[in-house]
Design goal:
about 270 residues, alpha/beta, 2-enoyl-CoA Hydratase, Chain A, domain 1, 6-stranded mixed beta sheet, 3-stranded mixed beta sheet, 11 helices, globular, Enoyl-CoA_hydra_C, Enoyl-CoA_hydra/iso, isomerase activity
């Protein structure tokens, strides 16, 4: 693409559709569109470009292949403390930019969405999930605090009781169940996800851009008021990246065994 999105690596595809619709596709289908560390920065640049892109009216984001995005690629080397701190800043910038963008963002959740992937899906203004898509908040499963979106958006979408249940347990939801409790906007058969998202995008692109953007700005005040909670949760997540539980979770993944969290063996254990 010969414009401001020309800095990509191929792991994220950008396509201009008719009528001012921009399609973003996470493009690592062999790894379920999980993110490498450089991809976090690439996504930050893309969202910043979207904000200043005068040709785009509506954004649709989806995943290549069978998945939407399964979060950070845990097969890559462990992040250093410097990389973990850089990720904290990257996440702060991403969420701030996404909330500030006045153009509508639609997520087409064509398959599994976990961690960062679910964050990207739910921070969109309209979320359309496959009926059978698997959605997992996921952070506590790998020994880190839910820091990239849960404290910010889940309570507004489904209330605190459902939030605590699904975020603390990391229990999976299907797209149809997520629609039932209000976590996503719509659920449709898998083959209809992207066509439906593009249909909604076209409808919005033909509407009053000022009215749509001003309405989004007003509604997003609910979210921007909660940004301090997000920044606290993100900081706690980064602390956990440096801890023993996260190291054990990664080692268990590599060895294809159940996780044995050190904190579960010590915290709250009865004294001998």
């Amino acid at each position: 693409m010969s414009d401001l999105y020309n800095h990509g690596t191929g792991d994220v595809l950008i396509e201009r559709r008719d009528g001012g619709v921009l399609l973003i596709t996470l493009n690592r289908p062999d790894r379920y569109n999980s993110l490498t560390l450089p991809m976090f920065e690439e996504m930050n640049r893309i969202w910043a470009d979207v904000e200043r892109d005068e040709q785009t009216k509506v954004v649709v984001i989806t995943g290549a292949g069978k998945a939407f995005c399964t979060g950070m690629d845990v097969a890559q080397p462990d992040p250093t403390s410097e990389q973990a701190l850089a990720m904290l800043e990257s996440e702060r910038q991403r969420v701030s930019t996404v909330l500030r963008i006045e153009k509508p963002i639609i997520s087409a959740i064509n398959g599994p969405a976990v961690g960062y992937g679910l964050s990207t899906a739910l921070l969109a203004d309209i979320s359309i999930a496959a009926d059978d898509a698997v959605l997992i908040e996921g952070h506590t499963r790998v020994g880190v605090a839910a820091g990239d979106h849960a404290a910010l958006i889940w309570p507004l979408l489904v209330g605190m009781a459902k939030t605590k249940y699904y975020v603390l347990t990391s229990e999976k939801l299907t797209g149809s169940e997520a629609e039932r409790i209000g976590l996503v906007s719509l659920s449709v058969p898998r083959e209809q996800v992207l066509p439906r998202a593009l249909e909604v995008a076209s409808q919005l692109a033909r509407g009053s851009q000022q009215a749509i953007r001003f309405t989004k700005r007003a509604l997003n005040a609910w979210l921007t008021n909660a940004v301090p909670q997000h920044e606290l949760s993100a900081a706690l997540e980064i602390l956990d990246f440096l801890g023993a539980d996260y190291a054990e979770a990664r080692q268990a993944f590599r060895e294809k065994r159940a996780v044995d969290f050190p904190s579960a063996r010590t915290v709250g254990a009865p004294a001998n």
